Amino acid sequence: MASATTHSPPSSWRDGMSSDNITGLVLALSSSIFIGASFIVKKKGLKKAGASGIRAGVGGYSYLYEPLWWVGMTTMIVGEIANFAAYAFAPAILVTPLGALSIIISAVLAHIILRERLHIFGVLGCVLCVVGSTTIVLHAPPEREIESVSEVWDLAMEPAFLLYASLVVTAALVLIFCFIPQYGQTHIMVYIGVCSLVGSLSVMSVKALGIALKLTLSGMNQLIFPQTWAFAIVVITCVITQMNYLNKALDTFNTAVVSPIYYVMFTSLTILASVIMFKDWDRQNPTQVVTEMCGFVTILSGTFLLHKTKDMADGLSTSQSMRLSKHSEEDGLNGSEGIPLRRQESSR
């Protein structure tokens, strides 16, 4: 009996797609659909608000009175809640890369609803993202069995993760106090570095908090443990810091460049943090790990291709700016989207 088990090990599909992984996968896919759709609905709301008031791109807030914008905002919140729940069921190495699918949803809906042309290379980028996501899903490790939030706290207190967290906090503080005052307006990696570093810790805390809530809802109250509230404080602190510096990056640099760089750094550091804290790769063989990495690289390639084609479309719009300026104002978009990276230097 023992020898039969050794000769026919379970396949990666059966290992990876446990019921928890399937739940996490469905939640992550739902999150991508809601978040991807929310960008389109919010943009439609911005267009309606911009037609009758001051555009958001030039500092107006008339969109706050537009119901369609609030529908988009609500859709995004639902997507974020689904993403939060996904971390409670599936490992970060499965959930985080699937965030790229929201880019596909957004691009396809923009092509259909907003008539924003999707270049042939954009279609190829979408295909690459789907192939890479499918590869990761099929080879994702099973979720670690955890019975209390204290177990997650013990994992976070292990020397390897404490070293990682210390390095992340130190690097983020050095960037904030030493580099941002001098280089924040001219070097894109400074702001994005802070967002990505802090973001990797926020995902680990979100996952811990999600596990605590899942166990609480199943009858094992975790809200009585101080560790649950400690993770909640870390989540709030990290998310506020992350959003603050991401907004600074988006306000200073071209969005089409910020998004893919942030996605790559944030996802890479999150996977690294998850591997260190939850030891995801300990439950896999080298072939599965390499396959997952290949899937991740495929998603990165598709993401860059999608944003590159957006740059090509922006360049086309810039060359026809005299003819299309009226339409771009109606879109409620920031007219500086297509300006090169160090756009503030050019105005000095």
From TrEMBL:
It is found in: Cell membrane; Early endosome. GO terms for cellular component: early endosome; plasma membrane. The chain crosses the membrane at residues 22-41, 62-82, 88-114, 121-141, 161-181, 188-212, 224-245, 257-277, 289-306. InterPro entries: EmrE-like, Mg_trans_NIPA. It comes from the Eukaryota. It is a multi-pass membrane protein. GO terms for molecular function: magnesium ion transmembrane transporter activity. Pfam families: Mg_trans_NIPA. Residues 320-348 are annotated as: Disordered. Keywords: Cell membrane, Endosome, Ion transport, Magnesium, Membrane, Transmembrane, Transmembrane helix, Transport. The keyword Transmembrane helix applies. Acts as a Mg(2+) transporter. Can also transport other divalent cations such as Fe(2+), Sr(2+), Ba(2+), Mn(2+) and Co(2+) but to a much less extent than Mg(2+). Homodimer. Belongs to the NIPA (TC 2.A.7) family. This is Probable magnesium transporter.
